[in-house]
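Q: I have 78 residues here and want to know how they pack in 3D. Can you give me a structure?
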Amino acid sequence: MEYKKAAVYYNGTKAGELQKNATGYVFEYDPVYAATPGSNPISLAMPLNKGRFESAKLFPFFEGLLPEGWLLNITSKA
C-alpha cells in the first residue's frame, strides 16, 4: 500500500514531513531543521525536541490549515 506524504515548510525551509498511513498520521521533523540553531517548532503542541508525532486523526495544527467549503472541494479534487 502506498501512503501519502507531504513536505512541511516553515518560512521557506523544509521543517519535516507529514505522512498518512494505515493507522493515522505521522509528523516528523527534518533532522537538519531540528538541529539548526534558531529553528522554530511548527506548532507549540509539536516541540522540536520530540521529533516524531503520531495520531489516529489529523493533527489540529494541520487541520486548521485546510480550506473549507467550495475551496475544499476544489482542493480535494486536485
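Q: Anything worth noting?
A: The chain has a mean pLDDT of 81. The two ends are 21 Å apart (CA to CA).
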